[in-house]
Write a structure and sequence with these properties.
The structure is a single chain. The protein is an all-alpha fold. The protein contains 6 helices and no strands. The longest helix is centred in the middle third of the chain and has 34 residues. The relative contact order is 0.18.
């Protein structure tokens, strides 16, 4: 089936979003091994926590972020497949996935924990929003009307 230029560009944006989601899912593990941004953020918010409790909180965040990232990868693959297959419901499904993904990203970015600070350090929260930009582009390209020839 021949794809319109908008559909081909949307698929490229979706693959970009898939790559960004995979990258953002790995970033907290890289942080744990190098900069300890998440651990420092938790320690600053909860100064009474000992190292074992900070490590436990970091591990909990890693599990949570990995599950969210895994669902994100599945959503990108499923939606990209639907667009490539020319499914009639692909555009609404892409819109729903965009809204869900953006909601999850904003939750990670803005939700405050009991310390009064955001649960994630701002750098990790903003990184979680990166795939949403690709999603916005993909949705815009999918819903754009083709130009008359």
């Amino acid at each position: 089936m021949t794809k319109t230029p908008g559909e081909r560009s949307a698929i490229a944006a979706m693959y970009t979003g898939l790559g960004l989601t995979a990258l953002v899912t790995i970033v907290p593990y890289v942080d744990r091994a190098t900069t300890h941004l998440l651990a420092d953020h938790i320690r600053a918010g909860y100064p009474a926590y000992g190292q074992a409790r900070v490590d436990s909180a970091v591990t909990a965040y890693l599990v949570l972020l990995s599950v969210i990232g895994g669902f994100g990868v599945i959503a990108w693959l499923w939606t990209t497949w639907a667009v490539r297959a020319g499914k009639r419901w692909a555009r609404p499904a892409a819109m729903v996935m965009f809204v869900l993904g953006t909601s999850v990203g904003l939750t990670g970015l803005l939700t405050k924990d009991t310390s009064g600070d955001t649960g994630l350090p701002p750098a990790l929260g903003w990184a979680g929003m990166a795939p949403c930009l690709a999603g916005l582009l993909a949705v815009a390209l999918l819903w754009r009307r083709p130009r008359p020839v």
